[in-house]
Structures are given as structure tokens and as C-alpha cells.
Specification:
Layout: H1 13-32, E1 37-44, E2 47-55, E3 62-72, E4 75-87
Antiparallel strand pairs: 1-2, 2-3, 3-4
Length: about 90
């Protein structure tokens, strides 16, 4: 069970690998440039995902939570009922 939302976002190994590569190539450079919190969007095949990234206040280490986007009122929004911690402070 996911401690953040209570439900784990179902992802294939391919999707997890793609999202991890995206995090390393797009998000990590921003963190090195001083960005402390941001949202990033990317798609894997036909699925769209939002990555919410911030620095943990106590450790200064990055945290990244992935949400799937769904269409609501004609717009894509993050469905926060399920999530996957791509990067968490441990």
C-alpha cells in the first residue's frame, strides 16, 4: 500500500523505467540548478503522467511522486487517488 495516497499507481516495468529515466534526465538537472519544487509532465505511450518533485525539508533530499493524468472537464489533471514514489527519502 502507498503511504501517500493509500493506493499504488499500477505501472509496468517499462513505464517505471521510462519515468525513472525522465526523472534523471529532466528533473535532476533542475534540482542541481536550485529548483526546490516543481511539477513535470510526460507521456508513456498513451498514458500521461505528472511528477511532483520537492526537496524534503529535513534532509534536503529530493522526493518525487508520480500521478497518472485523467481528463476532467476537457482538461488533463493529476489523479491523486493513486501514486508511485519514484524517489523518496529513506
Amino acid at each position: 500500500m502507498n503511504e501517500h495516497t493509500g493506493f499504488e499507481l499500477p505501472l509496468s516495468d517499462y513505464e517505471k523505467g521510462f519515468l525513472t529515466s525522465y526523472y534523471e534526465s529532466e528533473v535532476v538537472p533542475d534540482l542541481k540548478d536550485g529548483v526546490e519544487q516543481n511539477w513535470y509532465g510526460t507521456n508513456v505511450g498513451l498514458r500521461m503522467f505528472d511528477l511532483n518533485v520537492w526537496l524534503d525539508e529535513e534532509t534536503g533530499q529530493p522526493v518525487c511522486v508520480v500521478y497518472q493524468c485523467v481528463e476532467k472537464d476537457g482538461e488533463l489533471v493529476a489523479d491523486t487517488s493513486t501514486s508511485w514514489f519514484l524517489k523518496e527519502v529513506g
